[in-house]
Amino acid sequence: MYTNIFDTHAHYDDEAFDDDRESLILSLKDRGVVGIVSCGCDIASTVANQNLSHSFDDFYFAAGFHPENLEDFSVEDLEKLEPFFADEKCVAVGEIGLDYHWMNSTKEKQRELFVAQIELAKAKGLPVIVHDREAHGDTLDILKATKPSGVLHCFSGSVEMAREVIKLGMFLGFNGVATFKNARKIPEVIKEIPLDRIVLETDCPYLAPEPHRGKRNDSSFIPFIAQRIGEILGISAQEVLDVTSKNARALYNLK
Ligand SMILES: [Zn+2]
Description:
Layout: E1 5-10, H1 21-28, E2 33-39, H2 43-55, E3 59-63, E4 90-99, H3 107-124, E5 128-133, H4 136-146, E6 150-152, H5 159-167, E7 171-174, H6 185-192, E8 198-200, H7 222-233, H8 237-251
Parallel strand pairs: 1-2, 2-3, 3-4, 4-5, 5-6, 6-7, 7-8
């Protein structure tokens, strides 16, 4: 039985949890989960996660506009995030970033909203939760120019990029992808980057780790990621969980 499982990136508002959301989240505490941050992707999902955060201990939320959800939004809409920042359960601005895979809006618009949300986070003294899909170059350029605190979630870049990101003082988030056999760069990155810069996440309901790949994911599967990282580093999974949950608290300014 593992403890100190901190899920730094979840989506418990997702309809995949509609049938058993309450009982599932309640059960996580008994399975060693000590903290969850569930991310907003637009106003509706941020409200849903805010409501959940008021129903459960050790459950926090992030407020922001995901790069896949920008069609109907402009910089003026960022003021709609304002009320969330008065909530003590709001621990970050996210998830924000660049997604050049889906391209639901232009690169220009994505970059504009990304930078504006980073500046908002800095003004509020909050960390950012960054999504980067097929946009490594622009993501790194913007992070270097704006220097937020926060996490680059679902890290998929090179060792060189990882070094640049941690030089900025940010954390790297790893999820079930780290357990996939075809994820060749991740073990290299994990070997090269100090464990105190790494946090664990599910991105649930997606990206369940092996041996549950393809199934619905939840925070209780995080030990499979810790086992894989422990294997790479030659330490126990519990040690990985202990260090990364401490990192998660530092990332989100939690005691
Ligand atoms: Zn996500």
